[in-house]
Each structure stands twice: as structure tokens, then as C-alpha cells.
Design brief:
The chain contains seven helices and no strands. The chain is mostly helical.
Length: 117
Amino acid sequence: SLVDICIMLLNDFYVFDPMAESPSETTVLLEAVLCNRVLPTFPSLLGDEFPTPSYAFRLLATLLSRGSRAAGTAVRELNLAPQLLAALRDENALTLHSALLAHCLLQGREVSVDDLE
């Protein structure tokens, strides 16, 4: 799937390293595509049938956990945190990616611990 390919690229430090002093062109382009084209579709993806929300969680958790400031900015500008929390609450079980996403949202101060209740 497209998400699996994106996650594979995001996890490859030679392809994607947003924390580098001077990020590569590949990093900049991949971040731009994901933040400008994919993240704006999250409200509809999160409301879709299983397993679509899980794929969305995996992609965003990976992007944020790799230190993408552009993704953090996009989450903030698109006001995705409340929708992400609502979708996380609807999950049947806590998965590694949903826990990682919650951690990244807390770390980026997009949500507070009280929001997770």
C-alpha cells in the first residue's frame, strides 16, 4: 500500500532525515507531499471504515516520531489533534502506532494528558 511505502521511506535515514542540519531534497519533497497533500485528507481518512484510520495513525506517528517539524505545524494548522484523539478513542485496542501517535502529540504539546482521558 502507499502507506507502507511511505513508512519504509520515512524510516530510511538516507532518504528521510528532517532533523539533519541541512535536510536533503528528498526529505524536503517527501515532507511537502505528505504535509500538503496527505495530512489535509486526514479528517475523511479518520472517519472511514477500518483499517483506514489505522493506516493514517501509522503514517502520522512515523512522520512525527522522525522529528518532522513540518508535520507538527500541519497538525496544528489543520487542527487535527481533536479529530485524532476522537479516532484514537474509537480504536478497539491500543496499538504500537496509536501509542506512538499519542506520545508524539503530547511531546509536541498538541494535546495534554487530560485530553487523553
